[in-house]
Write a structure and sequence with these properties.
By secondary structure, the protein is mainly alpha-helical. The chain has two domains: 44-170 and 178-240 and 484-506, Alpha Horseshoe (Serine Threonine Protein Phosphatase 5, Tetratricopeptide repeat); 292-472, Alpha Horseshoe (Serine Threonine Protein Phosphatase 5, Tetratricopeptide repeat). It has helices at 44-63, 65-72, 86-89, 98-118, 121-128, 135-160, 181-198, 212-225, 229-237, 277-282, 294-300, 308-313, 320-324, 377-390, 394-408, 416-420, 428-442, 449-455, 459-463, 486-489, 496-501; strands at 10-13, 16-20, 29-31, 77-79, 264-268, 304-306, 325-326, 332-333, 339-340, 351-352, 372-376. A three-stranded antiparallel beta sheet has the order 1-2-3. It has a two-stranded antiparallel ribbon with strand order 4-6. The protein has a two-stranded antiparallel sheet with strand order 5-11. A hairpin with a 5-residue loop joins strand 8 (332-333) and strand 9 (339-340). Helix 1 packs antiparallel against helix 4 and helix 15 (394-408) packs parallel to helix 17 (428-442). The longest helix has 26 residues, at 135-160. The chain is globular. Belongs to the SusD family. Its main location: membrane. This is RagB/SusD family nutrient uptake outer membrane protein. Residues 263-514 form the RagB/SusD domain. Residues 1-21 form the signal peptide.
Length: 514
C-alpha cells in the first residue's frame, strides 16, 4: 500500500465527510456530503474510512506549508524571493498571510476528523456485535485517532502556542477560547498515552498506519520537550522493532523507493497522482492531495537552499553530506549515481537532495510522490542521548550518540580523533555540544532544527544572523542581521480570520509582537 488515503477528499465539517477507504485496491466511495453518524460505523469499511479521513489533512499540510514553516525559520535554509518562503525566512510574517491561515485550518480540520472517530466510540462498540469488525479493530481505530489528534495539536502548539482545545465531538463546532500551551501539551500527552495502549505494533497493521512504536516515540518526544526526562526515557524504552539503516541504505530514509523502511517511525503518504490543475495547487484537502511540492521547491526551483551554515557543520569525511545535499558538478545522483548534477531543469547547487525525486529519477517535478517522514528512529536515538545526558547518565548518552556515528562510519565520540575535531565528551556540557552537532547534520531539512534551538534556548544566538556565506565572517559588519526576536518569533501569529470569526478570541488574545 503506497498510502492509506489515496482517494480521500477530506473532512469538511463535523459530520460532513467525503470518504474513500483505500488500501491496495480501489474501493467504493461513500460520498454523502452530510454524513449522519447515526447511520454510520456499521461496517469495518466505514470504521476504516472514518479513520482514514483523519490522516488526510496531514497531506494538505505537507503539500507545502508543513515543511516550509519550520525549515524557513530555522538556520538550515536560505530562501529565494518566493513569497511562500521569504517572509518566514526573514521573520517578516503577519497574521493576514494566507499560508498561516491554511496551516491553522488544516490542523483543526484534522482534529475534527479525529473527534468524529473518538466521539463515536460507544456507537462502534454497540455495532460491533454482529458486524464484521471487532473490539480490537475499534481499539486500533481509536488509537490511531488519538495519535493523529495529538500530532495535529503538536503542530499547532509549536507554531502558535496556546490554541483552542476542541476535543468534544458535541461542542467542537462551537467557538472556544485559547487554552494555554500547558493545557494543550497536557491534552497531547493524554492522547498519546491512550494511543500507546490501543494501537497495534509494527508488523501487525498496514504500512502507513500509526503503530504502538510510533505512539511511544512521539510521547517520548513530547516528554523531552517538556523536560520530563524520566518519563521520556520510559517511553523511548518501549520503542522496539526499528533499527538504523546501514549507510549503504541511508538514502532509503528520503527516497520514494525506500518508504516504510525499518528506520521510519511514521510517514505522510503521497503517490504523485494529480487531478485538475486547480486541485493540485489548492492545498485545501478538497480534491486530489496526492502530490507534495517539496522536491520542486527545494531541489528544482531552489526556493529553500541549504544554508552555508548547515553545509559547513558536516565534517569533511561525513558520507551523509552527499546523500543530503547536492552542491556542484562533483555530485552524482540517481539510481546507481548514474547522473551528473545539476539535473535537467534544476537551477544548480547547493540544493537539497533529501526527499527529492532525484534518488529515483533524473529530474524533479511538481508531482512528487515522496512520502514525508514525520519521525525516524535516528531522531529517537538522538533524543535518548539527550535524555540520558539530562539524567546525568553521561556514558549511556555517549553510547547513543555513537550508534549514529557507527551507522555513518564516522569516528566515535570519546576518541582522540573526535577530541581533535573539537568534540570531546568528558563533561555534560561537551556532550550537549556533541548532541547539538549530531542532530544538526543527521536531521537537517527534516523540520526539527528550529524547535530544537528554541527548547535549548539557543534560538536568539543562532537565528539572529542569516546563515549564508557570511554567517561566521570574522568581521561582524559583514554578517547580515536577521529580524529574529525570541520574545516574538518563537511562535507565529494567530490568523486574523480566526480572531475575526471566533467570538471567544479577540485582538487582545493575539501573540505578543503581532
Amino acid at each position: 500500500m503506497k498510502k492509506i488515503s489515496n482517494y480521500l477528499i477530506g473532512f469538511a465539517a463535523l459530520f460532513a465527510l467525503f470518504i474513500v477507504a483505500a488500501c491496495d485496491e480501489d474501493v467504493p466511495v461513500e460520498n454523502t456530503n452530510a454524513l449522519n453518524p447515526e447511520i454510520f460505523f456499521e461496517s469495518r469499511s466505514q470504521v476504516e474510512a472514518a479513520v482514514n479521513s483523519a490522516y488526510n489533512q496531514f497531506q494538505t499540510l505537507y503539500q507545502r506549508v508543513g515543511y516550509v514553516f519550520p525549515d524557513a525559520i530555522s538556520d538550515e535554509v536560505v530562501a529565494s524571493g518566493d513569497p511562500n518562503f521569504a517572509p518566514y525566512n526573514r521573520f517578516e510574517f503577519n497574521a493576514t498571510l494566507d499560508n498561516i491561515a491554511l496551516y491553522w485550518t488544516a490542523c483543526f480540520n484534522g482534529v475534527g476528523a479525529c473527534n468524529f472517530v473518538i466521539g463515536n466510540e460507544d456507537r462502534m462498540r454497540t455495532n460491533a456485535e454482529g458486524s464484521d469488525f471487532s473490539d480490537e479493530d475499534i481499539d486500533n481505530a481509536l488509537g490511531q485517532a488519538y495519535y493523529l489528534r495529538a500530532l495535529y495539536y503538536y503542530h499547532l502548539v509549536k507554531r502558535f502556542g496556546g490554541v483552542p482545545l476542541k476535543i468534544d465531538v458535541l461542542t467542537a463546532t462551537e467557538d472556544q477560547p485559547r487554552a494555554t500551551a500547558d493545557q494543550v501539551y497536557n491534552q497531547i500527552i493524554a492522547d498519546l498515552q491512550l494511543s500507546t495502549r490501543l494501537t497495534l505494533p509494527k508488523g501487525a497493521t498496514e504500512k502507513g498506519r500509526v503503530t504502538k512504536e510510533a505512539a511511544y516515540a512521539m510521547l517520548g518526544k513530547v516528554y523531552l520537550h517538556r523536560e520530563l526526562y524520566p518519563e521520556a526515557k520510559e517511553a523511548f524504552n518501549n520503542v522496539t522493532n526499528h533499527r538504523l539503516l546501514p549507510i549503504e541504505e541511508y538514502r532509503d530514509n528520503f527516497s520514494e523507493t525506500g518508504e516504510h523502511n525499518d528506520e521510519s517511525m511514521f510517514e505522510i503518504g503521497y503517490n504523485g497522482e494529480v487531478g485538475t490543475e486547480a486541485e493540485r495547487w489548492a492545498q485545501t484537502g478538497i480534491g486530489t492531495s496526492e502530490v507534495t511540492f517539496r522536491s520542486q521547491d527545494y531541489t528544482g526551483w531552489a526556493n529553500a537552499r541549504p544554508s552555508t551554515k548547515v553545509i559547513e557543520e558536516f565534517e569533511e569525511d561525513d558520507p551523509r553530506l552527499d546523500i543530503a545535499i547536492l552542491q556542484d558538478e562533483d555530485n552524482t545522483y540517481g539510481p546507481g549515481d548514474s547522473f551528473q548534477f545539476p539535473c535537467p531543469g534544476c537551477v544548480g547547487g547547493p540544493v537539497w537532495y533529501k526527499f527529492s525525486q532525484l534518488y529515483d529519477e533524473q529530474n524533479v517535478s511538481q508531482n512528487s510522490g515522496v512520502n514525508v517522514r514525520v519521525m525516524r528512529y535516528a531522531d529517537v536515538v538522538l533524543m535518548q542521548a539527550e535524555v540520558e545526558m539530562n539524567l546525568n547518565n553521561l556514558a549511556p548518552a555517549v553510547d547513543f550518540l555513537n550508534e549514529i556515528r557507527d551507522r555513518a562510519g564516522m569516528p566515535r565520540y570519546g576518541t582522540a580523533t573526535m577530541d581533535a575535531r573539537g568534540f570531546p565528551v568528558n563533561t555534560k556540557e561537551q556532550i550537549f555540544d556533541a548532541i547539538v552537532h549530531e542532530r544538526f547534520v543527521e536531521l537537517c531539512g527534516e523540520q526539527v532544527r528550529f524547535d530544537d534551538l528554541v527548547r535549548w534556548n539557543l534560538d536568539d544566538q543562532e537565528l539572529s544572523i542569516f546563515p549564508d556565506a557570511n554567517f561566521n565572517n570574522p568581521d561582524p559588519s559583514l554578517r547580515v542581521t536577521r529580524n529574529y526576536d525570541p520574545s516574538v518569533h518563537r511562535v507565529m501569529p494567530i490568523p486574523q480570520n480566526e480572531i475575526d470569526a471566533n467570538t471567544q478570541i479577540n485582538g487582545g488574545d493575539q501573540n505578543p509582537g503581532y
